[in-house]
What we know:
Strands 1, 2, 3, 4, 5, 6, 14, 17, 20 and 21 form a ten-stranded antiparallel sheet that branches. Helix content is about 5%, strand content about 45%. By secondary structure, it is mostly beta strands. Mean pLDDT is about 85; it is low at about 1-45. A hairpin with an 8-residue loop joins strand 7 and strand 8 (about 155-170).
Amino acid sequence: xxxxxxxxxxxxxxxxxxxxxxxxxxxxxxxxxxxxxxxxxxxxxxxxxxxxxxxxxxxxxxxxxxxxxxxxxxxxxxxxxxxxxxxxxxxxxxxxxxxxxxxxxxxxxxxxxxxxxxxxxxxxxxxxxxxxxxxxxxxxxxxxxxxxxxxxxxxxxxxxxxxxxxxxxxxxxxxxxxxxxxxxxxxxxxxxxxxxxxxxxxxxxxxxxxxxxxxxxxxxxxxxxxxxxxxxxxxxxxxxxxxxxxxxxxxxxxxxxxxxxxxxxxxxxxxxxxxxxxxxxxxxxxxxxxxxxxxxxxxxxxxxxxxxxxxxxxxxxxxxxxxxxxxxxxxxxxxxxxxxxxxxxxxxxxxxxxxxxxxxxxxxxxxxxxxxxxxxxxxxxxxxxxxxxxxxxxxxxxxxxxxxxxxxxxxxxxxxxxxxxxxxxxxxxxxxxxxxxxxx
Length: 440
């Protein structure tokens, strides 16, 4: 948090980068269209979608395998593409996402003096930092070639590792006199990008049950330029009644998800809303009725109690013949009402190759609006793209210095009918699909 977001040693270099961005220049590290390359294995394996240097493949101890490609964009930073999920019992990978990346980090200050678009206007991608081995325990740190780099373009900045997350499930068997339990494992992919005094930790967690969780954590330093705000909008930092104040501000983080369930981008969007009514005569409890709305045109949506959305495959079904889908699960958010593009939690737009950033979007024709809210104009959805907005209002505290603890914001997408049963179901319970007793 700082009024002056650039450390002095970087001021000139960032100026050049911002000038290039203003001109609409963008470059990317990694293969734009790499040729498929087979992996030498004893058993047949799915064809690779990218070269080995840009491939991430991890089989977790539960038997689930995640596969994806990565590249590094000159503004968005890490971009993950062709993401597929293969739990045990599935004979081939299930494609989930065509691409996943950040869509913007918008940072307005409470005193109205400044606001920043860190991805398109403040060199987020160029701020990729080197990671020490201890920051990627048990994993691999990949070298990233950073486009338009301020210094050395080769940064050891991409960690891929695995982490335990605690119980995946626990069940006390009624008849087996046995506890069924398993500890979940995640594939963790993350980078750290420095923007001024902040350091953003962008992490993607791919769980063995098919869930994907996206988080951005802000850490680093409280900037001394933000002290002595003197405007009633800062929190006292330091000793006594006359302590310096740190200016409060918001972090509005956008993610852009291009789904491709079962390999097709022709997915369907559905919204579910439930209404709870008072008990009717003869009932012991209130009744809840859930309705489904098919979203056929572009959407600006707001999360609220008893509402959720899912992306439904147009081509694939699980072994129970139910359409595969992924449910969107919003995280805790403080919605910022100060800009039109931050007034909603979720946007669904029709795919347009030049629509890459939720605000101050470069690259599209000059006549086209520059923010995601303006792209929602009633167009039919045949290739839907999801934009998720999660806000955090940062009011500083004494404990933020020094260094500042990580504060996280994010959301998840959760498989809904992707597999016929829990993909981690133990073999003894495989017969319990749709009934609780063995059929005679």
